[in-house]
Amino acid sequence: MKRKFLFLYLNTGSGHKNAAKVLKQALERQYPDCEVFMLHGFGENSRKLGNYIFEKVYAVACNYISGLYPLIYDTAQFRFVQWLYVLGLSLSVPKRLRKFILKNQITDVVSFHFALTPPLVKTLRFIPWKLNVSEIVTDPFNGTHAWYYERNQHFLVFSERAKQAAMEECNVKEENLKVIPFLNNPKFKIPFDAKKIAETKIKHGFNPDKKIVLLVGGGEGLPGIEKLIHKCIRHKPDFALAVVCGRDENRRKKLSALANKHPFLDLHVFGFVDFLDELVKICSCAVIKAGPATLMEIVECRKPVIICKYIHNQEKENVHFAVKNHLGWFIRKPEKIYDKITQILSDSDAERKMDEKLTKLSFDTDSEKAARIVYENKW
Fold this sequence. Notes:
This protein has 379 residues and is α/β, with parallel strands linked by helices. The chain has helices at 15-30, 49-63, 68-75, 79-89, 93-104, 117-123, 160-170, 194-203, 225-235, 249-261, 276-282, 292-300, 316-324, 334-345, 350-360, 367-375, and strands spanning 4-9, 35-40, 108-111, 132-136, 155-157, 177-179, 212-216, 240-244, 267-270, 285-289, 305-309, 328-330. Helices cover 45% and strands 14% of the residues.
């Protein structure tokens, strides 16, 4: 049979879908004879309960109700609670997956979200051929134990640390785990020279002679960023601000109104963008939430990073990675964040120092290598 891959994802943040897109492009570049489909587990913009819980509730919990997501995350570490989630997802998802797999003669299925693997496993007995099934754990260093609910499946992880955690904490067998490169979009590796930076600043409405600070938090935006912006209003900085709000339309409207009210601030507000690499490359530093995709993309562009928030437990190791390797700082208080920004912007060697630190760091982001491992997979 012709190799036909099905990549399953959900829109919780942006890391799951982005990783799937990067791997899809790498597979199609190297193996033009294969075909890759991407499928939202519940259907894009579906009104099903699973979609509401895993996308809408996730966004609200992360951005607006402090303490709700930590509660969800901690309870989801227990296998009984995971079983309850799986029970609910098993009502409609397996039928949807089975229909798609049979119709398109899929040979390989890769799950990019832990919620989709259990219903996927339930479909296997209805498929009259052997499916190659694997799960890519998009948390690079640690993550919820729900990733490993189906312990006998095959898992692709981004680090030896994640591999060890799976074996020690979730009793996954070593032979069911493989380490692959982190799935960063290759366009973040392409450097901009001074001319290109100036042209891109103008393209996105910035003064080409002004330094830019990027505020970004992934697909759901950066919660609580208004406090830092109000600090900037008080200090009247000589740098511009670029804020990416992602899917948080309410925050985008609120900040756009703030930008109109304070034109001296030079505040530029964006929604969900497909040109984040350009904004990263024209900025002098970035303030972020510690999502793995956002962190790795900015680090790959050699930009200093200030982490102001992280998701309880789930993103804690991402913070440790950045701080331990001197790639950035973890600072919560807006006043101290502002002080660190001014310190970074006044350091003419900031980018060179970042380059030296990354040269010493061995963290693989070769998507072509990841594609070869997935295509030639022999479990």
